[in-house]
Amino acid sequence: MKGDAKTKISYLILGFGQMVRGQWVKGIAFLTTEILFILYMVKFGGTYLSKITTLGTVETYKEGRKTVYGDNSFHILLFGILTIIVIIAFICIWYLNIRDNLKAEALLKQGKKLPSNTKVLRSLLDENFDKTLMTLPVAGVFLFTVIPIIFMICIAFTNYDAKHQAPANLFTWVGLDNFKELLSFGTQGMGMTFFKVLAWTVTWAFFATFIDYFLGLAVAMLINKKEIKLKKLWRTILVLTIAVPQFVSLLYVMKMFANDGLINGYLMKWGWISSPIPFWVDPMLSRVMIIVVNIWIGIPYLMLITTGLLMNIPSDLYESARVDGANSWQAFIHITLPYMLFVTGPFLLTQFTGNLNNFNVIYLLTQGRPQSINLANNAGSTDLLVTWLYKMTINDSNYRMAAVIGIMVFIVTAVVTMVVYNRLPSVRDEEGFQ
Amino acid sequence: MNSEKKIRSGMKKKKIFGTVMAYAVLIIISIIWLFPFVGLTLQSFRSYDPNVEYGGMVDYLIPKHFSLDNYRFLFSGETNYLIWYRNTLVIAVFVSILQTIVILCVSYALSRMRFKGRKLLMRFWLILGMFPGFLTMICLYFLLKQFGLTQAGAIPGLILVSVASSGMGYYVCKGYFDTIPKALDDAARIDGASRARIFLTMIIPMSKPIIIYTALVAFMAPWCDYIFASYVAFGHDASYNVAVAMTRWVWTNDYQGYFTRFCAGGILVAIPVTILFMALQNYYVEGVTGGAVKG
């Protein structure tokens, strides 16, 4: 233990040193955190923390017509995690407190004055403005993203599912059992289904990203042509699909291609087909349809982005190419495309990972259907990992496997990002086109 | 001389042919793009009175009898349509304002200030973003329930969840702030302006395009929010937003002719949102393009 008496007392009573030295604002802030922490631990956190290794042992039972509630595993896990985090946060604050004390001590020793209370407060609008700005957003992310994610990662290692639902039943830690189930290829396991869904997820993301990209680029170049008039009109027509809320446009398109929908109706009326084309019933066809409908949504978006970028390409590049006798296709392959890929590389990557998790298009069009007997756990032929995860949570209350799938999605996304990102030309060679 | 003329006229012909082709392609594309919207509009004017015309799914485009039945139905109070609409509007307005404020704060701090753990925080948030959002659904539901923000209280609950984590979406806005020269800040600081003052009186007025972009994107998202909204409001009709309620109409299918009502309801949702988007289109383009290049 370093420091003088005031500092040493601050090891136990946070903020003591600051208060004695006249820095009331800081001192009270530190002391209040300590009091709140102790109250929290005694009244609330302690009991949950002590049960976190078992997630509760007291079963809920019925005494006559009355239900006597035992331990609630869900609460124990969630509040246990919260308590651990609160403890870590408190240790950090404690450390800050000690450091602040030592700093103040050193300043006084040198004969300097400590910053006054008003100055401390005012610094929150100036050199410490970052703290003012960031506190609430960081706290929000922490409470509504970080804690839930930690909680769900933990769920992947428990047997929390329809049969073990709090508060009626307890659930407990099961180690890696869920991961083994996901990757086992026996009749009970989900291995085959998982890899089929994963394969479709990656295929979908690939097509959805690149087809849209190239077609969007083509449309942008078409409208950019000198001879084309009414550029604004064409763009506005296309942009409609971005402006209209997707649940309206996608649900309508879904119904349009339904067995009793418009398209089949007209085709049959004209005598081109005798029975409806099973757009949403045939597994292969519905996959193609999803990609096609996604083009309808994706092209305008990419057109908007690429239109601006195309204009940034120096026109003398094209002129010198024409002097060298290149036709427009060669100019596209050797000038436009490399430039665009270079500039939009990181964007393509985020598009790809975004499409891996593109919930809306799939869910509004097919909800993952058609169902297949070859797939376990109610997965459908067009299910992505995320829609499968969603259905497991909502329909089957299979929280443990949903959590495992969620972790898998994270791994896939993270691996793709890491592998691709470092190979991107614009990352490796920032000066490339400048 | 003569052959050269021929080549030139040949090239001209080729060029005209190319232009005609380009127009043809554009017209075909426009028809494909517009068709669903035309269909949606036409079907919304079909009657749902079974004596006049069936209100469910039919296999023809143009209604035999034009009527305003569906719109009348929406405003009649037989369903909570007006409440759903109000819910969505309230969510969209609040989310738009609050989310923009949060993103501006985070972006300024990350762009202009160098504090301990800044890089770490950015990397941490990047990794967090790789987890699928729905993973945390049941946990968020539980958290909201503790504060009474589900079912009847779903509207403030949804706003809270959308705003709470919005700090992570700072990329585009920070990218924009990064392009504003730091020399401006430094000059103002030498003149004695505090960070807060620089932020409020210099940076914000200079960032109109990105503020409009951020607010627009935030405003449009709630109109499509089906997943979380349906989970949080579960079973409480008056807390639905339009997406949840209308989706139900389509999925529980059209045995009562709800399909044309969905079309009418969808049109009423789409019109204001579309007009707003079209009016602010240029800001949107600037935002997405900037975001795409920054990555």
- Large-scale geometry of chain B: flat
Tell me what the CATH architecture of the largest domain in chain A is: Orthogonal Bundle
Number of strands of chain B: 0
User: In percent terms, what proportion of residues of chain A is strand?
Assistant: under 5%
* CATH architecture title of the largest domain in chain B: Orthogonal Bundle
- Strand portion of chain B: under 5%
| CATH topology-level fold name of the largest domain in chain B | MetI-like fold
Task: Summarize it.
With 434 residues, chain A is an all-alpha fold. Chain A has helices at residues 5-12, 16-20, 24-51, 73-109, 117-123, 129-155, 177-183, 191-224, 231-243, 246-256, 262-269, 283-312, 315-323, 328-356, 359-365, 385-394, 399-421, 425-428, and strands spanning 61-63, 66-68.
Description:
The complex is a heterodimer of chains A (434) and B (295). With 434 residues, chain A is mainly α. Chain A folds into two domains: 5-175, no CATH class; 191-428, MetI-like (MetI-like fold, Orthogonal Bundle). Helix content of chain A is 68%, strand content 1%. Chain A has 18 helices and two strands. Chain A has helices spanning 5-12, 16-20, 24-51, 73-109, 117-123, 129-155, 177-183, 191-224, 231-243, 246-256, 262-269, 283-312, 315-323, 328-356, 359-365, 385-394, 399-421, 425-428, and strands at residues 61-63, 66-68. In chain A, strand 1 (61-63) and strand 2 (66-68) form a beta hairpin. In chain A, helix 3 (24-51) runs antiparallel to helix 4 (73-109), helix 4 packs antiparallel against helix 6 and helix 9 packs across helix 12. The longest helix of chain A has 37 residues, at 73-109. Chain B is mostly helical and 295 residues long. Chain B has two domains: 2-72; 76-294, MetI-like fold (Orthogonal Bundle). Chain B contains 14 helices and no strands. Chain B has helices at 2-44, 69-75, 81-112, 118-128, 137-146, 154-164, 171-179, 182-190, 195-206, 208-220, 227-232, 242-251, 258-279, 281-294. In chain B, helix 2 (69-75) crosses helix 13 and helix 3 (81-112) runs antiparallel to helix 10 (208-220). Classes of the chains: A mainly alpha (434), B mainly alpha (295). Chains A and B meet through helix 6, helix 8, helix 9, helix 10 and helix 11 of A and helix 1, helix 3, helix 4, helix 5 and helix 6 of B.
